[in-house]
Amino acid sequence: MHDINDMLIFAQVVKEKSFTGAATRLNVSKSRISKSVSRLESMLGVRLLQRSTRRLSLTEVGEAYFEHCDRILDELSLAEDTISRLHLEPRGTLKISSSVAFGTLHVAPALPGFMAQYPDLSVDLTISDRFVDLVEEGYDMTLRITAEPGLNLVARKLAPIRRKICASPSYLASRGTPQMPSDLERHNCLDYSYMSTGGHWRLCGPDGDIAVPVSGTLRMNDDEALSQAVLGGVGLALLPTFIVGKELQAGKLVEVLPGYVPVERFLYAVHLPNRHLPLKTRAFIEYLLALFGSEPYWD
After folding, report:
1. In whole angstroms, what separates CA 23 from the centre of its chain?
2. Please, how many CA atoms are within 13 Å of residue 207, restricted to the half-sphere of its CB?
3. Where are the domains of the chain?
4. Least reliable range by pLDDT among 49-58, 156-165, 261-270
5. Which CATH class is domain 4-88?
6. Which keywords, in A-to-Z order, does the entry hold (predicted)?
7. N or C: where does the chain have the smaller number of CB atoms within 10 Å of the terminal CB?
8. In this predicted model, what pLDDT tens digit does every residue of 147-194 receive, in sequence order?
């Protein structure tokens, strides 16, 4: 196995045309230079340099070996420069995934500003509600909305994900506004099919967590679609504020029972454990944290 230090010293001797010059350039002793070249010749089983009191010259084998050494050292220098640049500025391709709703409404709109900051970085974004495997599928990061991030992964909390009971002004005008959780039993409560507590809404009131029985004429497996039904006055629904924040702010939807905020989940940036987190991944996490702020703009 070639010692890269011996190769470096040999190449420097050739460039300086002397052991003394190489020692000065590399700031080591002349004896260290001599021992290194001798060790290299011994390992290769050939003489690389012709030594005399007046001059130093390459043997035919030494000349061929020097060309290879010089090329290898140039490649090594180029690799080190590349690694250095990657540590100084995000480069390469950032492969991330996000759920359909959050990815469409908040991640995709964030990309133009992020990519303008880092023009040498490409982004490969997968919009899917499928649970991706970071290791098997080669993702740098996934954005997950959950109460508990997965084990054996690193999860950075980015923002709270809140749900609010919402209704249109027209629905409340015709059916009245619930004043207590028990009032929900008399309303058309539209349900999200993927909630694990089907037939009940988990709320958090003055006395802690409660499960309120609900029923209605419509169930959907997509929160965005469900919000359209609520905007149309069909009934009440428990909707994520990252989907209906604008409608609540504009008065197109009204929050019902504001004192009974559902138990919060969070948006996490999830990645594999890595002592040296790639700069591209760290940069995107920091960008999202700054964009969302301590209180997300959709709230």
Report:
1. 46
2. 4
3. 4-88, 92-160+265-292, 163-256
4. 49-58
5. mainly alpha
6. DNA-binding, Transcription, Transcription regulation
7. N
8. 887 777 889 999 999 999 999 999 999 999 999 999 999 999 998 876
What are the structure tokens assigned to 133, written together? 């495997």
Beta carbons within 8 Å of 86's beta carbon, 6+ residues apart: 92, 278, 279
The total of other beta-carbon atoms located within 10 Å of residue 113's CB is 10
Among the residues of 190-254, which ranges form H helices? 223-231, 241-250
Helices 30-44, 4-16: crossing angle, 10 deg rounding:
110
CATH 3.40.50.20 fits 163-256, yes or no: no
Report the predicted TM-score, pTM, of the whole model to 2 decimal places.
Answer: 0.67
CATH number of 92-160+265-292: 3.40.190.10
The 10s digit of each residue's pLDDT in 93-115 is 999 999 999 999 999 999 999 99
